[in-house]
Design brief:
five-stranded antiparallel beta sheet; alpha+beta; three-stranded antiparallel beta sheet; 34 helices; single chain; about 900 residues
Length: about 900
């Protein structure tokens, strides 16, 4: 590694020393920075060519340097002759200005050590390209060593030399006198330029029709740098000391032969005996052997043969040579047209640029990049021509490497990115956006390319907006995420909301749907989906676009919509859109399909969550049961899932209320009971067993008394005895409170607390007991109401109505024969069993009529009927007309049940005064 660094250091030091020693002190270095040695050219390849830049403008140039050390071997007068000859050639070149002549940027400057002048950027001389590497740096640069001329380059290069000669002969009236590969320079663009006017001869009579040129006699004793190259010199120049324009045409013929013959001229001349050599070659030229021209293209052989003719009059002139078919190649014509573009108007240019894409693929890449591209980019200063030039430039960019694109094309494209007029520029860039984003560096994309896309989205032209929205998805993967999130998406949303064009709005939604995959989940949920609800229009295409975004987000693996968002925002929005009248059947079906998919997924996800929570609760519950130190209060208070609805709406089911049946006894809790609760439960079960084991009460026959007063006394005594007998059947329990006037009196002790007072609308609140059997007793009146309440701890004694009873019991008519002794003997004795079969007169109870006719009327006695022997009884909230739903229903047929006649009321009035 160290040896390589030392070698590199020595090479750089040597090159720097060479340049410094050659140019140091020359005035050229004041304005130009001299670079590395790249080529050689001029007479005898005596000029070293360096690349360089102008210090003030950084313009690229070529610096030609002649080192005077090369001629140290000559005498002083010979040195002076060489210097004078070289000065003459550069000065003549500086005075001449033509596209086919090498352009001088800075005139010749002389210092003690060298001569130097600056020209346009140069690649090499034709002699270097053809294999003459004299005065080149060591080692020879690879770009020169590997350079091969393409046919189109050769044809057009020779055409350019012919045009240059035509300019000299016809325009300047001058003979070049030393046309050879050393004096033909290839510039950076590949154009062939003429230099080396050291031996040029101007006409002595430029105003006359027949021009005369004074030729110098050949002096073999002069240094070679003071003589033209004899191998390319016309025979008459040496043999007859005469020359004219045809002499240059002979030189052109030899150059053409050398180009196709690996740089070798037609004849080899001995420079030490030039006259004998020419004499020997004349015979060969006069009898031209076809083998000499075998390597030339067939279509040009005849013309080269004429150019190499001994007789100057036979040789074609320069203007004629430019018109031969050999130079009519499409590539050569194309290149020639580029060189004359400055003479064309915009219409001619536009027609040419339109047809250029068909020609470019046929041309070599080097020709296109270094020859055509500079001509195209020079047209960017003309805004009207940019739409015609830009497609060709981008076509060339596709064939370039990224490095070539950045170095040769991007600097010229950057100003065009900012042009807003004409609109076609933006359209062309949008169509090639993938190319720009692929080859443009990230900083230039951010600073130049993406701002152009943003302008297109916000453009006033609907056509540009549509095209931009259609193209964005094709290169969305090349846009960095921050730019897309912060700049591109907000502009697309703004275009969708603010535009009046339906096409732009739909394309905005389609574009957004296609680039969803490049966004993250939460940005879509927070920014994209809420934006959909802001869209005002309800055209079917817009609605389907909205549906498409929802569907893409919902179905995408990376995105998805959470079930909370589905339930609260997405589904409500989609459902409201699905019933829009503008949708057809297929569109509606599409909406419903997406809605169903969302519902199914939401159901599945939430069900899975609840199942997991249930499993966790069960595990926690099992841990609490196994842990004796845990509190049992939480377990008691935890309602079971099956009884949650009953807990919310009450212990009595809705069906039980409607049917008027008693509530089903609740199952005992499975949790552990306290000792007091277990004792009470045992007593209740024992009492229930006693009741089930007792026989039904037998009716008693009581003879009527003789007088009314004794009858009343006997009746009261009998009633008290009956009540005493009934009391003996009651359940054991705490001492019951004494009866209070205006309240319900319980005939049996209660095992539970009193239910809050219930008003029937006419009397003070009546208490209903939750345990035991209650019997209301008041003087007869229109508003009397009494009832019996049953609980889960006592048997159900039935209801007065003939509805379905509790499970396990059969409905049968209540046996009231035990009360027959309560009636007076002077009235016909009608058993209560028969009374129960009679229909009660409508409206016999005043308070019942308040709730409409057709309701089941109850008498005070009916309200206080006692259920015996396990018969169903309707007491509590179900027996209260304010709580029974049947009292507020529509009139219906009166159900069969216990009914009383009007005489019963009269008898009870007599009985209780």
């Amino acid at each position: 590694m160290e040896s390589m660094l030392n070698k590199l250091k020595s090479t750089v030091t040597k090159v720097t020393a060479d340049v410094t020693s050659a140019v140091m002190g020359n005035p050229v270095t004041r304005e130009f920075e001299v670079g590395r040695h790249i080529a050689s050219g001029g007479p005898g390849l005596c000029w070293r060519i360096y690349n360089g830049t102008k210090k003030s403008t950084k313009q690229e140039v070529a610096v030609f340097v002649f080192d005077k050390k090369m001629i140290d071997k000559y005498q002083k007068f010979e040195k002076d002759q060489i210097i004078d000859s070289l000065k003459k050639g550069v000065q003549q070149l500086t005075r001449l200005r033509h596209p086919r002549l090498l352009t001088v940027q800075h005139p010749l400057e002389e210092s003690r050590d060298c001569l130097a002048f600056c020209t346009e950027p140069v690649f090499a001389s034709l002699a270097n390209v053809l294999g003459q590497w004299d005065n080149l740096p060591s080692p020879v640069p690879n770009d020169i060593k590997e350079y091969k001329l393409y046919d189109v380059e050769t044809k057009y290069g020779l055409l350019q030399i012919s045009e240059g000669l035509s300019f000299l002969h016809s325009g300047v009236k001058m003979v070049h006198g030393n046309l050879c590969p050393e004096n033909i320079i290839l510039n950076k663009s590949g154009a062939w330029k003429i230099m080396g006017f050291d031996f040029s001869i101007s006409s002595s009579n430029p105003s006359d029709a027949e021009l005369k040129y004074t030729c110098r006699e050949w002096e073999p004793n002069l240094p070679p740098l003071c003589l033209p190259n004899p191998e390319y010199l016309a025979p008459e120049y040496i043999l007859s000391v005469s020359c004219d324009a045809a002499s240059d045409m002979y030189s052109l013929g030899v150059v053409m032969h050398a180009v196709f013959n690996e740089g070798k001229p037609v004849i080899q001349v001995n420079k030490h005996d030039i006259f004998k050599s020419f004499s020997r070659q004349l015979d060969r030229l006069s009898s031209m052997n076809p083998a000499l021209l075998s390597k030339l293209p067939e279509e040009v052989r005849e013309h080269v043969k004429m150019l190499l003719s001994i007789s100057p009059t036979v040789r074609p002139d320069a203007d004629q040579m430019t018109k031969i078919p050999f130079f009519g190649d499409v590539g050569a014509v194309t290149l020639q047209y580029f060189d004359t573009l400055f003479q064309r108007d915009n219409l001619q240019k536009s027609q040419f640029y339109k047809g250029l894409p068909k020609v470019l693929p046929k041309l070599p890449k080097r020709v296109v990049v270094y020859r055509i591209l500079p001509a195209l980019t020079s047209e960017f200063v003309n805004p009207d021509m940019v739409p015609f030039v830009l497609p060709n430039v981008l076509l060339i960019a596709e064939e370039c490497t990224k490095e070539e694109y950045v170095r040769l094309i991007l600097p010229d494209l950057t100003p065009v990115f900012k042009q807003q007029e004409p609109l076609q520029i933006l359209l062309i860039f949008l169509q090639k956006m993938d190319l720009l984003l692929t080859k443009t560096p990230p900083d230039d994309i951010k600073n130049s390319v993406l701002p152009m896309v943003y302008r297109a989205v916000e453009a006033s032209s609907v056509q540009i907006q549509e095209l931009c929205l259609n193209i964005i998805p094709t290169f969305a993967n090349l846009i960095d995420y921050p730019s897309m999130k912060n700049s591109l998406i907000p502009r697309i949303k703004s275009a969708c909301l603010q535009t009046s064009s339906l096409a732009v709005r739909v394309n905005s939604l389609v574009c957004m749907g296609k680039i969803l995959e490049y966004l993250d989940k939460w940005y879509v949920i927070d920014e994209i989906l809420p934006f959909l609800q802001q869209i005002p229009s309800r055209e079917p295409a817009v609605l389907m676009g909205i549906l498409g975004i929802y569907k893409c987000t919902f179905a995408h693996k990376k995105l998805g919509i959470p079930k909370e968002h589905l339930a609260t925002k997405s589904l409500p929005h989609l459902v409201s859109l699905s019933i829009d009248n503008n949708l057809n059947l297929n569109q509606f079906n599409s909406f419903m399909m997406v809605i169903r998919d969302m519902l199914n997924r939401m159901e599945a996800e939430h069900k899975t969550k609840l199942e997991q929570l249930h499993i966790m609760q069960e595990q926690q519950r099992s841990l609490n049961i196994t842990n004796p130190g845990s509190s049992t209060e939480e377990i008691k208070n935890t309602p079971s899932s099956g009884n949650q609805i009953d807990d919310i709406f009450g212990s009595t089911s809705v069906k039980g209320k409607e049917n008027g049946s008693a509530a089903t006894p609740s199952q005992p809790s499975r949790v552990s009971l306290t000792l007091e609760e277990k004792q009470r439960l045992a007593k209740e079960q024992e009492q229930a067993a006693k009741l089930r084991s007792q026989q039904p009460l037998a009716p008693q026959t009581i003879k009527p008394a003789a007088s009314s007063s004794s009858q009343t006394k006997d009746l009261t005594s009998s009633l008290l005895n009956s009540m005493t007998s009934l009391n003996s059947l009651s359940l054991a329990g705490p001492v019951r409170p004494p009866p209070v006037q205006g309240t319900t009196m319980s005939a049996f002790p209660s095992s539970g607390p009193m239910v809050g007072p219930v008003s029937n609308g006419f009397n003070p609140g009546m208490g209903f007991q939750t345990g035991g059997i209650g019997m209301g007793m008041r003087p007869s009146g229109p508003g009397l109401y009494g009832g019996m309440a049953s609980t889960t701890s006592t048997p159900n004694f039935g209801a007065l109505t003939q509805n379905q009873g509790p499970s396990g019991l059969t409905n049968r008519a209540p046996n009231m024969s035990a009360l027959d002794s309560l009636f007076t003997p002077n009235k016909p004795k009608v058993p209560l069993n028969q009374i129960g079969a009679q229909a009660a007169p409508a409206g016999s109870t005043p308070w019942v009529s308040q709730f409409g006719p057709g309701q089941n009327a109850q008498t005070p006695m009916q309200g206080g009927a006692v259920g015996m022997g396990g018969m169903p009884s309707g007491f509590g909230m179900q027996a209260n007309p304010f709580f029974s739903p049947q009292n507020f229903s529509q009139p219906a047929a009166a159900p069969s049940g216990v009914k009383q006649s009007a005489s019963v009321n009269n008898d009870l009035q007599d009985l209780f005064g």
